[in-house]
Design brief:
The protein is α/β, with parallel strands linked by helices and 317 residues long. The chain has 11 helices and 12 strands.
């Protein structure tokens, strides 16, 4: 039987899914429900495996890891993002990398809209005020008729654009690889920053997109603008965003992703009043988790049967 390692199911999701039974029927599985915590420990866990089923993006598959695991032939990632995998090193070592594209697109787009509405309508602040027996009203922002700038028009970006149009917003867009999207007016990136009342980020994290939004981009935005990020924390310079929020350079932000996750107990974001925070959960619901885990396992079978699918290249934004 093929030797498969699950090095990082922490907190456990795979072992509680229907996909787990199918996996253990067909393969010898070396399973861990804690994070490795270091390259050395990761190598200890996966060194004898032919296939790795990767659950958490906090595990880094580096050049050193691939070099130390000569038996490894495939890494199947649960999720869309592969910024934690050195794809060039994988290619050099003959390791196939697959992910689960599109499986969470609707869920992430819905969560993005929920974050936007929460920030625009100041729902967390209103909730807290009511619980304090206060009755402050009249501080919300209407979105109908406003301009929504969508950066990145993959499956998630396109679905969010559709939802934004559904609440009456004009949608403009920019993406790394130009494409026509129904109902989206494509514009230059600087124009998007200058014209948008809302900016929602939907790119993949790569060397091209790390620090994509910093002080220069925030300076272009309208004072009443709202920034939403459900992509990856590394694409936004967090210190610059906090300064922009604190100084009133932009109105608000809504974040599901952060440079450090989980968010440390003493992190500065906890003290910023005009930001809505959620714990990198946009694409996580029981239905989406089960579908994604099943796809990650099925990607393994497809690879072993000589018909690999959902392969990830070095550049795919």
């Amino acid at each position: 039987m093929t030797a498969i390692c699950v090095p990082d199911d922490a907190p456990p999701v795979l072992v509680n899914s229907a996909a787990w039974g199918e996996l253990t029927k067909r393969a010898k599985v070396d399973y861990y429900d804690t994070l490795p915590g270091s390259e050395e420990r990761l190598v200890e866990r996966v060194g004898g495996a032919e296939v790795v089923l990767n659950i958490r993006s906090s595990v880094k598959f580096t050049e050193r890891v691939f070099a130390a695991c000569p038996r490894l032939r495939m890494v199947s990632v649960w999720g869309t993002g592969t910024d934690h995998v050195d794809l060039a090193a994988a290619a050099r070592r003959g390791v196939t990398v697959a992910n689960t594209p599109g499986v969470s697109a609707t869920a992430v787009a819905e969560h993005t809209l929920a974050l936007l509405l929460a920030a625009a309508r100041r729902i967390p602040q209103m909730d807290a005020a009511v619980r304090r027996s206060e009755w402050a009203r009249g501080h919300s922002t209407d979105l109908a008729g406003k301009t929504c700038g969508v950066i990145g028009l993959g499956a998630i970006g396109r679905e969010f654009a559709r939802l934004a149009r559904g609440i009456g917003m004009r949608v403009i867009g920019w993406t790394m690889h130009p494409r026509e999207v129904a109902g989206v007016e494509m514009v230059q990136l600087e124009e998007l920053f200058r014209s948008s009342d809302v900016i929602s980020l939907h790119l993949r994290l790569s060397e091209e997109t790390r620090g994509f939004i910093g002080a220069a981009q925030l300076a272009l935005m309208k004072p009443e603008a709202i920034l939403v990020n459900t992509a990856r924390g590394g694409m936004v310079e967090e210190a610059a965003l906090r300064e922009a929020l604190g100084s009133g350079r932009i109105r608000a932000a809504a974040l599901d992703v952060f440079a450090a996750e989980p968010l440390p107990a003493d992190h500065a974001w906890r003290e910023v009043p005009n930001v809505v925070l959620t714990p990198h959960c946009a694409g996580i619901s029981p239905t989406v988790m089960e579908a994604g885990l099943r796809m990650a396992v099925e990607n393994v079978w497809a690879f072993l049967e000589g018909r690999p699918r959902n392969l990830v290249g070095r550049v795919q934004l």
